[in-house]
Amino acid sequence: MSIYNKYGERIEEQIQPASRIIAVKMLESLDDIPSGAKRPIEDYGKCMATCQALALTRKYGETIVQLFEDMWCPEPVIGFGLAEPPEFFFEGRNRYPGGVASLEAGVNWARELPRLEPGRYIGLVSAPIRTASFEPDVAVIYCNSAQLLRLLLGIAYEDGRDISPRSSAAIRRVCTPSCPPY
Predict the structure, then answer these.
(1) Distance of alpha carbon 80 from alpha carbon 85, whole angstroms
(2) pLDDT band at residue 108, thresholds of 50, 70 and 90?
(3) Structural domain spans, the chain
(4) How far is CA 47 from CA 18, 35, 67, 83, 91, in A?
(5) pLDDT (tens digit, 9 = 90+) per residue, 53-62?
(6) Which contiguous run of DSSP H or E holds residue 65?
(7) CB 77 within 8 A of CB 68
(8) Distance CA 126, CA 68 (A)
(9) Across the chain, which distance is largest between two alpha carbons, in Å?
């Protein structure tokens, strides 16, 4: 059992989240894919939104790998650096109309979307942190406000400092079972 598995176990015991804590690792090569991991295209016969892949991990304990061809939504593809953003993205057309009030707001959103360096990674893997066979780059915890308070108090315990989070809203999209034409 790795130190991350133990941390995950301890956090889950302390805050009792309604679903599993997720370990996420960015993949640099196909050799980084854990054995037994499922791929949306191969194992489910279709692309998936990253939020759907993470839901399979947190609710059912699945280890899921998403490479470029497994992803439905363009925003994670761009954010994770799996492809260069197309020009229409920076023109704000990915969010407007429908997701923001104006094309200018769409431009602002696109410009401020956190993005990893294109070409550095080929995909990502998610697994329950208690059983992950890899060292995660990040842990994702779905929790309520009381559980979040407990986590934040734990973070500030050593030095009394709070963290400065950044958050963003996402649009709920109606997904179809086929892959998008990127």
Answers:
(1) 11
(2) very high
(3) 3-83+118-156
(4) 26, 20, 10, 16, 26
(5) 999 999 999 9
(6) strand 64-67
(7) yes
(8) 15
(9) 50
